[in-house]
Amino acid sequence: KELYLIDRWGAGYFDVNDDGNMTVAPLQERGRKIALQDVVNDAREQGLRTPLLIRFQDLLHHRVRNLNLAFASAISENKYRGVYRGVFPIKVNQLREVVEEILDAGRSFHHGIEVGSKPEIFAGLSVHTDNDSLIVCNGYKDDAYIRMAMIGRKLGKKVILIAEKLSEVRAILRIAAEMNVDPLIGLRVRLSTKGAGRWATSGGEDAKFGLSTSEILAATELMKQAGKTSAFKLIHFHVGSQIPDILIIKRAVREAARHYAKLRKMGHPIEYIDVGGGLAIDYDGSRSTFHSSMNYSVEEYARDIVYNIMDVCDDEKVPHPDIVSESGRATVAHHSVLVIQAFGSIEKVTPGPLNGAHDDHKLVKNLLYTLEHLTQENLGESCHDILQVKEESQKMFDLGLLNLDVKARVETLFWQAAERMQKIASRLDASEVPDDITELSKQLVDQHICNFSVFQSLLDHWALGGLFPIAPIHRLNERPTQQSTLVDITCDSDGKVSKFIDLSDVRDTLPLHALDDKPYYLGVFLTGAYQDIMGDIHNLFGRVNEVHVFLDDDEECGYYLEETIAGNSIREVLSMTQYESREMVAKLKAQVDAAIKQDRLRPTEGMRLLADFERGLADQTYLTFG
Ligand code: PLP
């Protein structure tokens, strides 16, 4: 447990049981613990193999409640005179079941949704049923988008259109008049406060979105001219996702609250301050301002927002607004776990005899000598010796002076010596370890080959260097023996995970077990935010299999699989690139017929091959084992 820092990033949801299996408690200490391995087995019985995305719907429920309760208690502690109205930004995870679960969990708190595009408003309108909760509309808008929002207004929903540009204010006022609807308008303020971390550019004066102070005043003028001063309901800002440092949040909130207060004093009837997203996740458990972490809790976040808005409003003597936050990552990241299978490994050190023979090649004799006389004292010198032998053997091989058996023996002994040197070095203080040994140790890393695609399932890792906790989901009572990285099955050297979480830095390797004859499963945790939808079909690896787990005390195991969603078939991903399966089968049949005509295939065999091809199109895109 300590090795994988489970207690640090697990937020009370993840643990290890006496059998060495990773468990999930979707309701933290209040609920049952489910072994991930059991869910993997159950899914397999239903025909779904790894890679498998497991969603814990109760955990989602728990996150929504926690966020709302954190704001409720901050509001009551501070005797704040507004309420909290959270919205879930559906871009973070658009899956209908996820959005519906969040709305269900948030019903008593009137938790709404945020949409950021035209397709998202269609989705949003269809799943939103509580007219006391908000639909906040961000992103650039055309007339059709605005019209959809107005349909929501006609249905009695509080749909607030956040203008990103002045031209949008004009369009909203025009379309609202045409449709005879009272619009609700929010303005996104371009704050001078800049975010930090990977998504810092969402804030600051050069941000892509938002209105400058003069544009805000011009927008209010447009509303006035249209006789719709009362439409101005909300001030919005968003300084970026995954804000690691609470100081940035406090600063941004105060700046936005000041805008609100000044506008309020000018007579604009604004009711809400929307603080956007940014509430972070402690992916590495370091509780620091590193980009994969955060130096605050959800409770502190809520308290600081409530307090700072209140402080500015009291100072300016304006009413306390209702508070909206658009927390996506913090709502959904924990609820899904990606389980992948390591089905092979590439190991540097392979077993081989350490005894010499009188007719051994000179290079082999040199290596055996170094190995025999290796001590802590001659570590650096021995390292130079083996590096020299390796270089010499490569040169001789290039000149055709070395046979393959000698080359193989040299390589085996080289890595055995390197491993022994690394062991000795591990007992020394870092400052005493020669640089060459440190370099050599980096090359000693093994690789576990895993049945998944980084491009489909962990895009943030590939594109932005985002870190996710990764650990075996079983064998956790057995000490791992290898330092490894993960490689995926795409034909791309970028398709790998070679950066892992650490408390003080980033690790280059993950301690893993040697593979045996049973499947070896790894969990990639905190993957519920952004990863699903952003993944692409590089190498035509499609969506992975998915199961949704619900707690149920009536079941002996304490849970049931409510829904299983099969990943993309080969046919489906091919059709995305304009390969139509009927046409493909016809083309292959023509080739089979030609081969039969030329007597290269017997007709029955040809028909069997064709049937195999056709059947194979229904298979999943990932590799199948056992
Ligand atoms: N709101 C807006 C406008 C965003 O752009 C984003 C994402 O960057 C979010 C909300 C969600 O942010 P987070 O996932 O950090 O809560």
From TrEMBL:
Entry keyword Acyltransferase: no
Domain named Orn/DAP/Arg decarboxylase 2 N-terminal: residues: 85-333
Cited PROSITE patterns: ODR_DC_2_1
A Pfam family it matches: Orn_Arg_deC_N
Keyword Metal-binding among UniProt keywords: yes
Top-level taxon: Bacteria
Keywords: Decarboxylase, Lyase, Magnesium, Metal-binding, Polyamine biosynthesis, Pyridoxal phosphate, Spermidine biosynthesis
EC number(s) recorded for this UniProt protein: 4.1.1.19
InterPro entries: Ala_racemase/Decarboxylase_C, Arg_decarb_HB, Arg_decarbox_C, Arg_decrbxlase, De-COase2_N, De-COase2_pyr-phos_BS, Orn/DAP/Arg_de-COase, PLP-binding_barrel
Domain Arginine decarboxylase C-terminal helical: 570-623
Coiled-coil region(s): none
Needed co-factor(s): Mg(2+); pyridoxal 5'-phosphate
Molecular-function GO term, any one: arginine decarboxylase activity
Domain Arginine decarboxylase helical bundle: 358-437
Homology family: Belongs to the Orn/Lys/Arg decarboxylase class-II family. SpeA subfamily.
Role according to the record: Catalyzes the biosynthesis of agmatine from arginine.
NCBIfam families reported for this sequence: PRK05354.1 (NF003763), speA (TIGR01273)
Protein name: Arginine decarboxylase
Native source species: Pendulispora rubella
